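Hey,
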Amino acid sequence: MTRKQNQVIVDSISIYQSERCLWQVKPSKYHDHTKKDAAYNELVKKLEELEPDATKKSVVAQMNSLRSAFRKERKKVEASKKSGASADSIYKPVLWYYDLFDFQQEQDIQRKS
């Protein structure tokens, strides 16, 4: 990835984090489609720096992909902690933007089955 691509991803994650209506399910703003559309439009403008024909659909796909990769990495970290591994052998995430998605941990609380 180029430096510009990385910066657009960092900026997109920052915008996504600030727009709680896109990811925080509990408040009623999550169900406010007007606010969500405005937030997605802001993300579309950012993504247009790389992809001039970016759409809401492509932004949603990109954010879902980034979040999915983050969750996979976090799952590996949690599994290594549960295995009783020493502090030195706990899995270290290789995803370069892993720390940027740290805000998602409060949202992704697993339910008991």
